[in-house]
UniProtKB/TrEMBL annotation:
Residues 129-238 form the PET domain. Transmembrane segments: none annotated. Keywords: LIM domain, Metal-binding, Repeat, Zinc, Zinc-finger. Residues 37-61 are annotated as: Disordered. Belongs to the prickle / espinas / testin family. CDD domains: LIM2_LIMPETin_like, LIM3_LIMPETin, LIM4_LIMPETin, LIM5_LIMPETin, LIM6_LIMPETin, PET_LIMPETin_LIM-9. Residues 237-301, 302-362, 423-484, 485-542, 543-605 form the LIM zinc-binding domain. Gene3D superfamilies: Cysteine Rich Protein (2.10.110.10). This is Putative adaptor protein enigma. One of its GO terms (molecular function) is zinc ion binding.
């Protein structure tokens, strides 16, 4: 059993620890409903909070679009409804537009996260409403023949390939590749149709339409343009973005708004804000920087974070570090306005308190009611309680900031848990109280202080120990009691011992009794139960040969000759005159000498 001290923490819940669930950010102060910003044009000044947004919804048709644009007006044919979500895959049945947000009703992913495509071949001049320029555009037939959805105008096939070789492969608009999809998406993102023509604005107030048209006209005249690729520079130049070298004779991108003497590497012709390649070389110039149209517009006007349209009204809502039409700052779940209301942030989306509690609030384990944003959420092992509901299942005392235990999905105060479930120490027999450290080994358990050596009684703690039968020993006591000891020095033999006559010796202790040389691995013998090396034994105790005076020694029963009180080596038992061996033969003694019979006769004759 583990008893825990309930602690308040903002970390995630972990087994054995009660945590206070981190609450979502609740915006207590009221959202300022309207921010008065001087936007310029006829839309300047204050307006009534109740003024309506003009909604151009389903009643808009392509006929109306065509009627509201000039002969070279903006033409956009994007297909989005029913298109699969590139993020959710099969989980989304297809794009279904929200009434005013640029998101899918089904999966709530952004519109641009779906496989939106253009119904027809896209000429960027048609999309932005710039008059056709035969000298700076390539026909649909030529483009498709080259195998791309767009190519830089005026280049030969070889130069087209050279240009695209300098771009990241996944951004090259080759037909049937991710690069083609990349271009389609950048056309939608960098050149949003609602920035390009009044006909595509659904939420522009009537009184702001003139301001929008003035903005578009000024942008088109002052900032918006299309770059081109120069096949070969006449002289070496410096890239306007990276400062690198553009060698003479190499191709480079030119932006006419910056002058003909300014050039870029193809891969450097990017938006200063999003750093994406400027789609089809379409750019806006401002303060010496290149921008895509989207980010150029956002340097001048706020953009509604919900509908993605520019805000021309002098009044709008600012919240979450974003800008919103005053009627578009709404609950992500129910679409009710949050203006003047408290809201909760979840995954960077605002929710009204009611929806947040319905969708995300945890249910209390005790009362089964939702734990609202104004209540403290206590969590333990993926279960949640109101602070007032976190009680002992038996005595009903509050467990907040107190030790507790859990059993069979229920929580108990320390006293009730101990009385009902606590295990007992195998040393002292007492229960394990809340917060007590417990030592366990092979099904047995002890208090930390009870886990002791049975000999010295010192607590073992986390040190090494040795079990024997049902007892526990510290290493020192075990060695003192059970380890093998040397018969000579009485010290413990930890390694490399020698056994002689069933008695243990250290190798260094097993030596000759006389000369103290080591006998380990050497020939030796014993006398009076003491070991001697062969040499010392012979010198001290062996019989001596009468002939050579050397000791008679050997292994395994050496043969020698003995007569009366004299002894000879077999090899030394020879006739003193003829030196023939007398082993196994008759002999005659003559004083200290021994003679064979023939030599004896000769000597005596």
């Amino acid at each position: 059993m583990m008893m825990e001290e309930a602690t308040a923490s903002t970390s995630g819940s972990s087994e054995g620890i009660l945590v206070v669930v981190e609450r979502p950010l609740v915006v207590e102060d009221l959202v300022v409903p309207l921010v008065r910003v001087q936007s310029g044009g006829d839309g300047d000044g204050e307006r009534d909070d109740a003024s309506e947004l003009v909604t151009r919804g389903d009643e808009d048709s392509e006929d109306r679009v065509a009627a509201e644009v000039s002969p070279w007006g903006v033409l956009v044919h994007e297909v989005d409804e029913g298109q699969p979500c590139l993020t959710c895959k099969d989980k989304c049945p297809g794009f279904s537009p929200h009434l005013w947000r640029k998101v899918c009703n089904n999966c709530k992913c952004p519109r641009e996260s779906h496989d939106v495509y253009h119904e027809e071949f896209v000429n960027v001049r048609d999309r932005i409403g710039i008059k056709p320029d035969p000298s700076n555009q390539t026909s649909k037939e030529k483009t498709l023949q080259e195998g791309y959805s767009w190519v830089p105008p005026g280049l030969s096939s070889a130069k087209i390939e050279e240009y695209f070789s300098q771009l990241p492969n996944h951004k090259v608009p080759r037909l049937g590749t991710p690069g083609e999809k990349y271009r389609d998406r950048q056309l939608i993102v960098q050149l949003p149709k609602q920035d390009l023509a009044l006909a595509y604005c659904k939420f522009l107030e009537r009184e702001c339409q003139r301001s929008f048209e003035d903005f578009v006209n000024a942008r088109n005249e002052i900032a918006l343009d299309i770059g081109y690729v120069r096949e070969a520079l006449e002289k070496t130049q410096e890239c306007f973005k990276c400062g690198g070298v553009l060698p003479s004779g190499e191709l480079a991108v030119i932006a006419p708004k910056f002058g003909e003497l300014v050039a870029w590497h193809p891969a450097c012709f990017v938006c200063a804000a999003c750093q994406e390649l400027l789609v089809d070389l379409t750019y806006c110039a401002k303060d010496g920087h290149l921008y895509c149209e989207r980010h150029y517009a956002e340097t001048l006007k706020p953009r509604c974070s919900a509908c993605d349209e520019l805000i021309f009204s002098g009044e709008y809502t600012k919240a979450m570090n974003k800008d919103w039409h005053s009627g578009h700052f709404c609950c992500w779940q129910c679409d009710e306005s949050l203006t003047g209301q408290r809201y909760v942030l979840r995954d960077e989306h605002p929710y009204c308190v009611r929806c947040y509690e319905q969708v995300f609030a945890n249910s209390c384990e005790e009362c089964s009611k939702a734990i609202g944003i104004d209540s403290k959420d206590l969590s333990y092992k993926e279960k949640h309680w109101h602070e007032a509901c976190f009680l002992c299942s038996k005595c009903r005392v509050s467990l907040v900031d107190k030790p507790f235990g859990s059993k069979a999905e229920k929580v108990y105060c320390a006293s009730c848990y101990d009385a009902a479930f606590a295990s007992r120490c195998d040393g002292c027999g007492e229960i394990f109280r809340a917060g007590t450290k417990k030592m366990e080994y092979k099904g047995h358990q002890w208090h930390d202080k009870c886990f002791c050596c049975c000999t010295c009684k010192n607590p073992i703690g986390t040190r090494s120990f040795i079990p024997r039968d049902n007892d526990i020993y510290c290493t020192t006591c075990y060695e003192e009691k059970f380890s093998t000891r040397c018969i000579k020095c009485n010290q413990i033999i930890s390694s490399g011992g020698v056994t002689y006559r069933n008695e243990p010796w250290h190798r260094e202790c097993f030596t000759c009794t006389n000369c103290s040389s080591s006998l380990a691995g050497q020939r030796f013998t014993s006398r009076d139960e003491k070991p001697y090396c062969a040499e010392c034994f012979g010198e001290l105790f062996a019989k001596r040969c009468t002939a050579c005076s050397k000791p008679i020694t050997g292994i395994g029963g050496t043969r020698f000759i003995s007569f009366e009180d004299r002894n000879w080596h077999n090899d030394c038992f020879i006739c003193a005159m003829c030196n023939n061996s007398l082993v196994g033969k008759g002999f005659i003694t003559d004083g200290p000498e021994i003679l064979c019979p023939e030599c004896a006769r000769q000597k005596l004759m």
